Amino acid sequence: MALPEINLRDYHYQLPEDRIAQHPLSKRDASKLLVYSDRSISHGRFSDIGNYLPKDSTLVFNDTRVIPARLQFYKNTGAAIEIFLLHPLLPVSDLNTAMQAQGCSTWSCMIGNLKRWKMSQQLQMTLMVEGLEVSLTASQISNNQVKLSWDPAELPFLELIKNAGQVPLPPYMKRAAQPEDRKRYQTVYSRAHGAVAAPTAGLHFTDSILKSLESQGVTKEYLTLHVGAGTFQPIKTESVTDHPMHGEQISITKKSIDHLMNAKNLIAVGTTSLRTLESLYWYGVKLINNLGNEFHIRKLAPYQQYHNLPDFSQSLEAVKVHMETKKLETLDGHTEIFIFPPYHIKSCVGLVTNFHLPASSLILLVAAFIGDDWYRVYHEALKEGYRFLSYGDTSLLLPSIHN
Q: How many CB atoms sit inside 10 A of residue 90's CB?
């Protein structure tokens, strides 16, 4: 597939400031639901989403769990230094393992008020963890790398940041995190700690909705993509394809691969689930074309020339064979996949997704999924008073589904 010339202005729309949801609704499933099906648009409530799903649907959820990634330190002068954890570097870069690190851990970070923090200065805080006094020290390794050390060293890193950190709300929420965000900025099915941003399409689901969908014959599958802060990064490059896509860690079990191979109508819950499924497809393509077995999908991998392009099930069959050969029950990898028009989605017939920022990589993904109708969908959502972004309302996109 040749790389297209994309004019980012074609993916812009006017988003009034007051349409950006600053707080969640009192009930998760009370949000509005815009349904785009076979080019027609209708409106409902998220609590009724089961009425709009095609027959034999399988919902694919991202079960990542947001970590309290904002650490606030104070110098003796009173100046505040904020350390925003992005991804671990040492002793390991694997998020699942990094959560269990003891004594010290080095992370790639964004640092607020960096000019006030000299390289030679150490920052310290004291906190209580289950009645135990813990001392936490931050030292700069470079302008974007920070070593965190704590005593007692036996305390796992995850338990440390649960007590020391704050919820990393997106930058367009013009407020500090509040106690309610600890719960509401997580999906009810979140499990694997490591994200620094929530897979927000899943925030609308409740346990009762999941049970109701199951009773309707809707099946579920879970995978993990640890969402990075790069998801909020605006496109600033002159050429859209030069935009530096963020790398994110993926994890999926062989059992899940089996289920996905045989599912009829896959519905991705969120852009992160869709990006994971498409990354799995391209990993299978890589294996089939004998291009190595490293599970690392580069941002423009889908736009290369390949001798053999299988369908989704065939590609996952190659992934399954690889896992069986390597005796892997869980497949871990990374993806930087960049999905933009005229990319053709390989995995899903539907997508549950919130409403995204203008001229963003996520708008490009939606445009790849439903074509130029993305603008009609967004115009309709604005006209009908939908709330936008992470704590906003949502949509079910079904480009051409026939029961």
A: 14
Half-sphere exposure (Cβ direction) of 24: Cα atoms closer than 13 Å: 24
Q: How many CB atoms lie within 10 A of CB 56?
A: 12
Q: How many CB atoms lie within 10 A of CB 401?
A: 17
State the Cα–Cα distance between residues 192 and 225, nearest whole angstrom.
9
Helices 254-262 and 271-288 pack at an angle, to 10 degrees, of 90
10, 125, 1, 49: which is closest to 398 by C-alpha?
A: 49
Of 158, 176, 198, 168, which is closest to residue 62 (Cα–Cα)? Answer: 198
pLDDT tier at 308 (50, 70, 90 boundaries)?
A: confident
Domain ranges of the chain: 10-65+184-398, 69-164
95-136 confidence digits (pLDDT tens): 999 999 999 999 999 999 999 999 889 999 999 998 999 999
CATH architecture of 10-65+184-398: 3-Layer(aba) Sandwich (3.40)
Which sign, positive or negative, has the C-alpha torsion 370, 243, 386, 188? positive
- Rounded distance between C-alpha atoms, residue 57 and residue 117, angstroms: 52
DSSP 263: -
Name the amino acid, one letter, at 4. Answer: P
pLDDT digits (tens, 9 = 90+) for 225-252: 999 887 777 888 888 888 988 789 999 9
Amino acid 92 reads V
Q: Checking DSSP bridges between strand 219-225 and strand 248-253, what pairing results, if any?
A: antiparallel
Q: How many CB atoms lie within 10 A of CB 270?
A: 25
